[in-house]
Request: fold
Amino acid sequence: MTRPDTTDQPIAATLARLRLAAVADSGHQGQLDGAWWPRSSRPLDELTALVAVLEAPRDRVVKFMLSTAGWRGFPQVLPLPGRVIPVCWLGLYHDLLIARLTGRQLSLMVVPPDTTSAVAASATQIALDPSNHTPSPGVLARAHQLRGSRPRT
Reply:
């Protein structure tokens, strides 16, 4: 993820732990704005860390919409110091997170935590491709196909 206002080392280290790749260009034409590969299936832990990276001084996360696939527990809010962020759970979309920020919306494919590094890298590359018009389940299936592996069931 490239943001001009986040060039210090703590953010870079957080990005490495988060395994997040997102386009910074608001004119991006692809189906997805990037990919997020959480390390666990605990939504409160993972979303809290994600907020720390997505937010900028004038751009705050105001809502998460997240598919139910692969998560342990479905909290309705993300409690943070001084505020709460509503979390809506979507049963219709597989492996998708939509983050509504103050001035924009991000659609991120969620790579399941137990995915291999090779498949996750391929899925992220496909998700970031501006010519990609495949929704997240198709991206993950294509990544598995490219790597000769089978998706989780």
